[in-house]
Amino acid sequence: MSLLRTASRQLAPSRQPFIRAGAVAAQQPWNRGYATEKKIGGFGGQKQANGKYLVSLIEGDGIGPEISQSIKDIYAAADVPIEWEPVDVNPILKDGKTAIPDAAIESIKRNLVALKGPLATPIGKGHVSLNLTLRRTFNLFANVRPCKSIAGYKTPYDGVDTVLIRENTEGEYSGIEHHVVDGVVQSIKLITRAASERVLRYAFQYAESIGKKKVRVVHKATIMKQSDGLFLDLGLELSKQFPNIQFDSELLDNTCLNIVTDPTPYNDKVLVMPNLYGDILSDMCAGLIGGLGLTPSGNIGDECSIFEAVHGSAPDIQGKALANPTALLFSSIMMLQHMGLNEHAAKIQKAAFDTLAQGKYLTGDLGGKAKTHEYAGAIIDNLK
Ligand SMILES: NC(=O)c1ccc[n+]([C@@H]2O[C@H](COP(=O)([O-])OP(=O)(O)OC[C@H]3O[C@@H](n4cnc5c(N)ncnc54)[C@H](O)[C@@H]3O)[C@@H](O)[C@H]2O)c1
User: Which domain of life is it from (predicted)?
Assistant: First the structure.
């Protein structure tokens, strides 16, 4: 009897198909692992001859241009070694499918990094979400959402400082749905070794890079024994390669209850999870610290990464100088950290936190009266 068959006998029945299919599937792309030393999702960009990095800037729709202007002003005042390359991502239809214009793809592929304002999803024009299209075009496999309380701005919880990392390419969002018979539909949750290992490895590396001591997988492997079971097993397997990081896991429902009861025990952790759990839990955590208007995010890909605020284009306040640029500014700070420009990131972050804590120039959504440019001006004053 082969070793493979002996092993499969000892496993719970629910795990057996993986082992039986293992010999053949091991060679397939969805099963390929990543080399141990490989830095996942790192930034490989180079400075230009003038000493500056080129960064693609998608200003976006609605309030996008207004909040982008604030970022440009703050960056100019802070002498950040960046030149912005404006990029138009107005969608085109290619062979009946939504696509990003070639010039935009080339810009992001050349610069390897982009900052993105909110994009309005066109309704009824046959387009799918542009955000989804960007994610697919650049294979942005990890969505990183830091969740940190802001001193001076009273929110439901104080002292929150955790990070959520969501697998961004498959799981419940694989888009495989079937109409089986009348009244019965089936939606397939796809979990692959390759995509899971990639995001898990990124989570361990990210924890190391920001000095968090623990990585926790959030899952429902008690119910989805094979799909979440694979994700969880891979987390455990990979943890052996990161001896300085403690690894553990928690059921999604317990995480939800525990984090709204007291989020502070999560401050030493990076939480990593399959797609849908990450979608829901990261918005829930944004609620702990004052909502989506203050929440930054990074979409990390193998080569290119795109940083964006998680709020939308806010058409109701467009052109009125009422928009709050904080979420886009914090996303750009994540971008600077990703690019290794840590000193500039720290300087701008401190100026923004100081401005928020002083509370004198807050925008309307935070209870203040300042216009977008007045708030940005106060941050610039605090840079000095
Ligand atoms: N990442 C993205 O690009 C993204 C995300 C969400 C929604 N959208 C798109 O944005 C459009 C509008 O969506 P929506 O109205 O549901 O959500 P929204 O986030 O644009 O607005 C919700 C509410 O929050 C306010 N708000 C949002 N951002 C703000 C900011 N920076 N400063 C002050 N107030 C702010 C708005 O005025 C509005 O009252 C839609 O087309 C949607 O598809 C894009």
Answer: Eukaryota
